[in-house]
């Protein structure tokens, strides 16, 4: 079976388009970088003719092995993968971006191995490759169906993209989704795809730092903005729509329930916007159960993603039902976990 090699990036196109229209001298580098990032996204998407690597028909019961990481340096070019600068077991390279990428790949591998028993991104020991210093002041990080790629940011709005562990976990989780449910990157299925990456991106950070539900920030991309931006992160799972409110970027447009669902043809049908709805459902489940979110809530969402019941075009309602079914399978019909899942989806106005 072949899965379409979907280009999944962390910065939504609506942010890039807004930056590209800036004419203030103090944001000249950001405007130029946004235009180049948008052009790159369009060129990659139009050139998507090759399938991604074949996914296994069914994941074997393979015990997780150690990570196998390779970090490359594009040197400001857009040629992948670039020059190898650090491979598995090597000491720190001295390049901050390369070493952050190396560590972030390892932390993500550890979460999926330790908590979910997954043997790397594909479940069968896939080597983890990443390229840093992609493009000139490139304003994005992305999963291209095969590897991770990080830009350095423009320095006016965005810092380097290896700076945020949740971004690294987010993008690698697109690979997990690719090799399991294979969710389409459009409309509600695409928003679920984005949400799964936000969920496990924040869990990577929480697991590393031993943060409980109440201790965690629940932010995606914390630390990416320069001090010039009025905002804490790209998105908030706890309170979608509140991550930033800035004169330049505008206000975070994510809805927190179906009452504010955004119907649009842009951004593949609003995949980065409407992901706020399933994001909040996960947070509410975790808030109700308390403790550590990578335990019961994480196991339920992971089981729903990888259990084989999700169609590629799953809607929010289909996914909500899958999480409820996983809660029953894992914890029982009358369990607090099942009740928490049902209440969470009811709160965000998704009917089971």
Question: How would you describe this protein?
Answer:
By secondary structure, the chain is α+β, with helices and mostly antiparallel strands. Helices cover 41% and strands 9% of the residues. The protein has 10 helices and 10 strands. It has a 6-stranded mixed β-sheet with strand order 1-5-6-4-2-3, with helices on one face. A hairpin with a 4-residue loop joins strand 5 and strand 6 (148-150). Helix 7 runs antiparallel to helix 10 (336-347), helix 8 packs across helix 9 (316-331) and helix 9 (316-331) packs antiparallel against helix 10 (336-347). The chain is globular, with a radius of gyration of 19 Å.
Give me a quick take on this structure.
The protein is an alpha+beta fold. About 3% of the residues have low confidence.
> From the helix content, strand content and strand pairing, which structural class follows?
alpha+beta
* Cα gyration radius (Å): 19 Å
- Helical stretch tally: 10
Helix content: 40-55%
Descriptive keywords:
alpha+beta; 352 residues; six-stranded mixed sheet; 10 strands; two-stranded antiparallel sheet
What is the secondary structure topology, with strand pairs?
Blueprint: E1 8-9, H1 13-20, H2 28-46, E2 69-73, E3 83-87, H3 96-116, E4 128-132, E5 141-143, E6 148-150, H4 165-179, H5 187-209, E7 219-220, E8 235-236, E9 245-246, E10 250-251, H6 267-270, H7 276-289, H8 296-306, H9 316-331, H10 336-347
Parallel strand pairs: 2-4, 4-6
Antiparallel strand pairs: 1-5, 2-3, 5-6, 7-8, 9-10
Helix pairs in contact: 1-2, 3-4, 3-5, 4-5, 5-7, 7-10, 8-9, 9-10
